[in-house]
Design goal:
The chain has one domain. 45% of the residues lie in helices and 19% in strands. It contains three helices and three strands; from the N terminus they run αβαββα.
């Protein structure tokens, strides 16, 4: 869990800096989209932590967690190249901790 918190803080700082750049840009370059992401996590606690980690990182919000499917709202949807990247490094660490 210590590894998880270190990675979470790193991702939190990166996301905050990115959101500050977006907000301070006069043209407000946003392209909001909702993506459907499937997680391989089996533990309900791990899934909840994944959804909350995504929500707590600025620029993304977990809209719904339905079984192994997660719906994520992203402020810069046009910049998402791989939907699996939305889970960030969180899923791998949570799998190690809970499974």
């Amino acid at each position: 869990m210590i590894k998880y918190f270190v990675v979470f803080l790193k991702e939190l700082v990166k996301a905050n800096l990115n959101m500050a750049r977006i907000v301070l840009t006069p043209s407000l370059p946003i392209s909001p989209k909702i993506f459907k992401v499937t997680t391989s996590l089996k533990s309900p606690i791990a899934r909840t932590l994944l959804a909350n980690s995504i929500t707590l990182t600025p620029g993304t919000i977990s809209v719904e967690l339905d079984g192994d499917t997660l719906y994520i709202h992203v402020v810069e949807g046009d910049k998402v190249e791989n939907v699996e990247d939305l889970k960030g490094p969180f899923e791998k660490i949570l799998r190690e901790a809970f499974e």
